[in-house]
Design a protein that fits this description.
CATH superfamily: Aldolase class I
Number of helices: 13
CATH class: Alpha Beta
Helix content: 40-55%
Strand order of the largest sheet: 1-2-3-4-5-6-7-8
Number of domains: 1
Structural class: alpha/beta
Shape: globular
Largest sheet: 8 strands, parallel, barrel
Distance between the termini: 28 Å
Radius of gyration: 18 Å
Length: about 290
C-alpha cells in the first residue's frame, strides 16, 4: 500500500457548510509538497460520519483527479451497513483509488463472526488492497486477534490501522502476523513504538499541519537513525496530545485555522472547542513556532 506517513486529511467547509474544494485542492498540494506518502480521504478526520454518499463520491473523485498519481490515494469506505460499504468501495475503485480503509461497523456492535463475514464480503466484492481500521473507542467494536488472523488470509486484506491504543494488543498482532499484514499506527503519539514493532507507518492527524515532520519521523526510523526519529517524536508529542484535547477532528481544524489554512468549522454534532482548550492548543503551536 504505502510506507511512511499517510495524512488523514480534513474536509474543509465554507461558511455555508458545503465542501470547499478550492481550499481542499490547496491542502492536497501542501501535502504533496511536504512529502506526505499517501492521502486518506473520507476518514474519521475527514468527517465521514456527516458526509452524505454523494459528497463522499465527489470528494473521492476530486482527490484522485487532483493527486494525478503523484502518491497513493486511500478512500475511507467503511460503514455499519455491509452493502453500503460495498457500493462505496466499488465506486472508489472505479474512481481510481489505490486502496481502501474500512472502519469496523459502528453502533451495531456485531460479534466477531459478523465482523469477519462483513470484511470477507467486502473484500470479495472489490479487487483493491484493504486496510482494516480498528478504533474501538469510537465504534464499540474491537478486532480480536483470532479474527484478524482469519482476515489476514484473505488476499486483498493487506493492513490494519491500529487505533486501539493498546500496545500489548498491537505487539501480539505484530508477533502473530509478521510479514503477513502491514501495521499502521492510528495514533500519532504511538508512531515510534509501532514502528519499533515492525509497523509500516502512520495514518496521521498531525500530518495535516506538520506533514514533513511526520514523514521524516518515519523515514528516519526506516533509515536506521533511531535517535532522530525519537527526537522528532518527542518534539511534537505535546502537539500530538493536544490535537486530541477534544473530539477529533475538532482540534486539528482549530489548529489549521490558527495557521491560516482556513478549513472552516466541523459539521454538527461536532462543535467548536471551549476557549480554554483553544488557548492551550494555540500556546503549543506558538511554542513550536509552527508556520505554514
Amino acid at each position: 500500500m504505502f510506507k511512511g506517513s499517510g495524512v488523514a486529511i480534513v474536509t474543509p467547509f465554507d461558511k455555508n457548510n458545503n465542501i470547499d474544494y478550492d481550499t481542499y485542492k490547496k491542502l492536497i498540494e501542501f501535502q504533496i509538497k511536504n512529502h506526505t506518502d499517501a492521502i486518506i480521504v473520507c476518514g474519521t478526520t475527514g468527517e465521514s460520519a456527516t458526509l452524505n454518499t454523494d459528497e463522499k463520491k465527489e470528494l473521492i473523485k476530486f482527490t484522485v483527479k487532483s493527486v494525478k498519481g503523484r502518491l497513493p490515494v486511500i478512500a475511507g469506505t467503511g460503514s455499519n451497513n455491509t452493502d453500503t460499504a460495498i457500493e462505496l468501495s466499488k465506486f472508489a475503485k472505479k474512481a481510481g483509488v489505490n486502496g481502501l480503509l474500512l472502519v469496523t461497523p459502528y453502533y451495531n456492535k456485531c460479534n466477531q463472526e459478523g465482523l469477519y463475514f462483513h470484511y470477507k464480503k467486502i473484500a470479495e466484492s472489490v479487487d483493491l488492497p484493504i486496510i482494516l481500521y480498528n478504533v474501538p473507542s469510537r465504534t464499540g467494536v474491537n478486532i480480536e486477534l483470532e479474527t484478524l488472523i482469519k482476515l489476514a488470509k484473505i488476499d486483498n486484506i493487506v493492513g490494519i490501522k491500529e487505533a486501539s491504543g493498546n500496545i500489548s494488543q498491537i505487539l501480539k498482532i505484530a508477533y502473530s502476523l509478521e510479514n503477513k499484514l502491514q501495521i499502521y499506527s492510528g495514533n500519532d503519539d504511538q508512531t515510534l513504538p509501532i514502528l519499533a514493532l515492525g509497523g509500516s507507518g502512520v495514518l496521521s492527524v498531525a500530518a495535516n499541519i506538520i506533514p514533513k515532520q511526520i514523514h521524516d519521523l518515519c523515514y528516519s526510523f526506516f533509515d536506521g537513525n533511531i535517535e532522530l526519529a525519537k527526537k522528532i517524536q518527542y518534539k511534537y508529542l505535546e502537539l500530538m496530545n493536544n490535537l486530541f484535547i477534544d473530539v477529533n477532528p475538532i482540534p486539528i481544524k482549530e489548529a489549521m485555522n490558527m495557521l491560516n489554512l482556513n478549513v472552516g468549522n466541523c459539521r454538527l454534532p461536532l462543535y467548536s472547542m471551549p476557549l480554554d482548550k483553544k488557548e492551550k492548543l494555540n500556546k503549543t503551536i506558538k511554542n513550536l513556532n509552527l508556520k505554514i
